[in-house]
Amino acid sequence: MITHEPPAEPTAPAYRSAMESPLTVVAASSSSPDNADEFGRVLQKFALAARTEAGCLSFEVFRSVERPEHYVTVERYTGADALAAHQASDHFREIVLGELMPLFVSGAADVYGAPIQVPPARE
């Protein structure tokens, strides 16, 4: 019998530090091909609303050139509190849950901390 230990609470100093710095959410989502244009319109509406939040640094929507029903959003927030406020906002509930989810087929989102520093290319 295989057993698994429950995951440890993410309390490592590096994790805590990452949650206090700006966060980037990368969310990939798809609709059915028949709903692709409407899905994009709703994502645009949501981006406009999210950009009014005090803790939202940016919110961009990208549409796949190969699969037009597939979208990616790249959202930046000042920190964990701003992301939590975003997810608790009226427009999140009304637009994402009320308008976007009925068109949603699949997707996933990940939250990232500060970018990894990469040295400049050699000239």
From TrEMBL:
Q: Which domain of life is it from?
A: Bacteria
Q: What is the lineage of its organism?
A: Bacteria, Bacillati, Actinomycetota, Actinomycetes, Mycobacteriales
Q: Tell me the ranges covered by the ABM domain, including all copies.
A: 23-112
**Alphabetical UniProt keywords:** Monooxygenase, Oxidoreductase
**Annotated protein name in UniProt:** Quinol monooxygenase YgiN
Cite a single GO MF annotation: monooxygenase activity
Q: Which Pfam families is this protein grouped with? A: ABM (PF03992)
Q: Which SUPFAM superfamilies match?
A: Dimeric alpha+beta barrel
Transmembrane ranges, per UniProt, are: none
Species in which this protein is naturally found = Nocardia mexicana
Q: Is Oxidoreductase one of the keywords UniProt gives this record? A: yes
Decide whether keyword Oxidoreductase is in the record: yes
